[in-house]
Each structure stands twice: as structure tokens, then as C-alpha cells.
Amino acid sequence: APPKPLLEPPSGLRVSFEFFPPKTEKMQEALWQSIHRLAPLDPAFVSVTYGAGGSTRERTHATVTAIQAETGIPAAAHLTCVAATREEIDAVARAYWDAGIRHIVALRGDPPPRPDGTGGLGGTGYQPHPGGYAYAADLVAGLKRVADFEISVACFPEVHPEARSAEDDLDNLRRKVDAGACRAISQFFFDPDAFLRFRDKAAARGIDIPLVPGVMPIMNFAKAVEMGGKCNCAVPAWMTDLFEGLDETPETRQLVAATVAVEQCRYLEREGVKQFHFYTLNRAELTVAICHMLGVRAKRPPAA
Ligand code: FAD
Questions:
Q1: pLDDT (tens place) for every residue of the chain, 304 residues total
Q2: CA of 269 to the centre of ligand 1 (A)
Q3: Three-class SS of residue 232?
Q4: Residue 205 near residue 170 (C-beta atoms within 8 A)
Q5: Which residues belong to the active site?
Q6: How far is the CA of 209 from the centre of ligand 1 (A)?
Q7: CA–CA separation, 108 vs 120, rounded Å?
Q8: What is the CB neighbour count within 10 angstroms for residue 116?
Q9: Residues whose CB is less than 8 angstroms from the CB of residue 136 and which lie 6 or more positions away in sequence, other chains included
Q10: Which cofactor does it need (predicted)?
């Protein structure tokens, strides 16, 4: 077939959306507004994060089950190893199975930040709980013993900050696959070539599950750079350049952010990537715009 014109939106892409459990009434409202805008895009699944150290156990459960019940979209619960025994984690998983949740995003987790602000995101200072699952691969195996969950795990195109080496990190991903993971969702990245190089290395290691790029639409460039710094995510100079001078003009910044994300996704799509996972931060606007440009359109009537 002749090549498609460059500007024609791709077809047949699948997307998934990640949310975090809301803390306040106001945040709850914002979350549901976002869900009602994003659900019509018919995502393959949505997922709800688990706060550092299990701090959102109840809220994650309540949010995941409510989204699945209200929208009918398969909802995945994130679950981590931090600060809990195996028995406690197994009980959380069993409660998910009993509530009809069949998909878990299994993670090691990071220690909660210490009062001096160190630790937390990026994972410095992690200590396995003495009676717990030490690493995500152990958690995947444990979950499979509890029930036949669909299990997604994390992967790190630019290498996890605590990994002894890039090879070690790939071996770790391989262990997660061998334990039963059927999909790996990537940490966000700003250089799509980093993802493609990682995909090649993973394939060379015999890792044959889908690797789904995690896309973080940039709402606040300074914050994105700060978060990226903690997770080994390089910010290309061209990107810093693009966002320069836009701090005081949020609308312009949003247009730029949407364009950047669309170009990154289309670049990956041309390399055969057909699924994208969006870190929505519970805000729909940018993600809806990006999906629209990627040819992902409403399939269900919008909720009343
Ligand atoms: P692991 O796969 O266990 O790897 C962690 C590190 O340990 C790696 O450096 C690995 O190479 C190394 N390692 C693994 N096994 C061994 C071993 N036997 N010996 C020595 N080193 C080893 N965090 C949350 O708290 N809640 C969430 O909801 C959440 N959701 C996330 C969703 C996605 C898609 C991603 C990418 C991350 C998420 N995180 C979440 C963050 C995640 O918990 C951290 O990135 C964490 O530091 C690593 O988790 P992991 O599951 O990749 O750990």
C-alpha cells in the first residue's frame, strides 16, 4: 500500500489512562469530571495508583471499584510491596478479586519521603519489609498464587535509578515476565528514541510482552523536569527550549504541550507502537486533545 500522508492521524491505536485516588471532595469532583470526559474514548483499561507506603489502600480500592462499576471499563489497581507483610498484601489482592477487579499493576513502590524530604519518588533508601515481598517480581509471583490476575509491571527505558546496571534492570524485567506479568508500562520519558532503544534491548533479552510507553502530558514544565530528575528521565535541550518563556501563559503552554506529546506518540507509532498509557494526573484536557489528534475518538455516548 502507498505510505499514508504524514499528517493523516493514525488508526487503530489503543490507550489507557492512569488516575490517582482523590484526597478531598474537590479532588473527587475533578477526578470524576475527568473520567466522564475520558471514558467515552473507550480505553483498553484505566488504572488507579497506590500511595507511597500503602497510604491509599482504602481510597485506591474505593476508586478502582467505583470506576469499573460506573463506566464498565476494566479497571486495574496498582499495588506495592512497601511496608506490608505478604499476608497483608495477599489480603488486599483477594479483596480486589472478590470485588471483580482482575488486573493489578504490580510494583515495588518507593519508601515514603522522610521528614527531611529525602527518599520518596525515585526510590532511594528502599528496604524490603522483613515479612514482605522484596521486589516487584516477588509480588507478581505472590499475586499469581492468590488468583489468576492479569498483571502489568513497570519498566524503565532510561534505567531505574537504583539498578546496578542497565543489564541488571533488564534481567529484573525478565524475572517479572517469567513470574507472570503480561504487559510492562514504562516510566515517562521525553526522548522517544530512549524508548525505542530500550524496546530493542528488551527484545534481544527475549522479553516478548507488550511494552507500553507511559506518556506524561506536560502541565507544568518545571515540575516535569523535577520529577524527571528523580527518575532518571533526561530532558532534551530542544524541549527546554520549547517551553522557555511560557511560564506566564498557561494556554499557550498547553497548546505546546499537546503538540509535543502528539509528535512523540506519532514518532513512536511510525515505529510500530500501537498502545499508549497516559499519566493523566486526574486532568482530562490535554489527554483528550492528544488522543483526538492520534485518531482516538469517542466510541461510547458521553455520560450525562
Ligand atoms: P522492581 O521491579 O522491584 O525494581 C526496583 C529496583 O530494584 C530496580 O532498580 C531493579 O533493578 C532492582 N532489583 C530488582 N530485583 C532485585 C534484586 N533481587 N536484587 C537487587 N536489586 C533488584 N509507585 C507507587 O508507590 N505507587 C504506584 O501506584 C506506582 N505506580 C507506578 C506505575 C508505573 C507505570 C511506573 C513506571 C511506576 C510506578 N510507581 C508507583 C513507582 C515505582 O514503585 C518505583 O519506580 C519503584 O522505585 C520501582 O518499582 P518497580 O516495580 O519497577 O520495582
A1: 766 666 788 889 999 999 999 999 999 999 999 999 999 999 999 999 999 777 889 999 999 999 999 999 999 999 999 989 999 999 999 999 999 999 999 999 988 776 666 555 555 678 899 999 999 999 999 999 999 999 999 999 999 999 999 999 999 999 999 999 999 999 999 999 999 999 999 999 999 999 999 999 998 899 989 988 888 899 999 999 999 999 899 999 999 999 999 999 999 999 999 999 999 999 999 999 999 999 999 875 656 5
A2: 26
A3: coil
A4: yes
A5: 18
A6: 18
A7: 12
A8: 6
A9: 81, 106, 107, 108, 153, 154, 172, 176
A10: FAD
Residues constituting the chain: 304
Distance in Å from the first CA to the final CA of the chain: 42
Task: Among 56, 64, 78, 108, name the best residue to mutate to test ligand 1's pocket (greatest count of ligand atoms within 8 A of Cβ).
Answer: 108
| Residue nearest atom 8 in ligand 1 by C-alpha distance | 163
Half-sphere exposure of 128 (CA within 13 A, CB side): 12
Relative to the CA of 185, which ligand 1 atom is closest? 34
ipTM value for the complex: 0.99
Residue with cell 455520560: 303
Provide residues with CB under 6 Å of ligand 1: 49-50, 52, 78, 80, 105, 107-110, 123, 135-136, 154, 160, 162-163, 168-169, 172, 185, 187, 214
Distance 107 CA to ligand 1 centre (A): 5
Ligand 1 centroid – CA 136 distance (Å): 6
Q: Which three cell numbers stand for residue 215?
A: 506518556
Ligand 1 atom, smallest distance to 109 CA: 43
Grid cell for residue 208: 516478548
Contact 274, 13 (CB under 8 A): yes
Nearest CA to ligand 1 atom 19: 135
Map grid coordinates 506479568 to a residue. Answer: 181
139-173 residues labelled b (16+ CB within 10 A) or e (exposed) = bbbbbbebeebbbbbbbbbbbbbbbeeeeebbebb
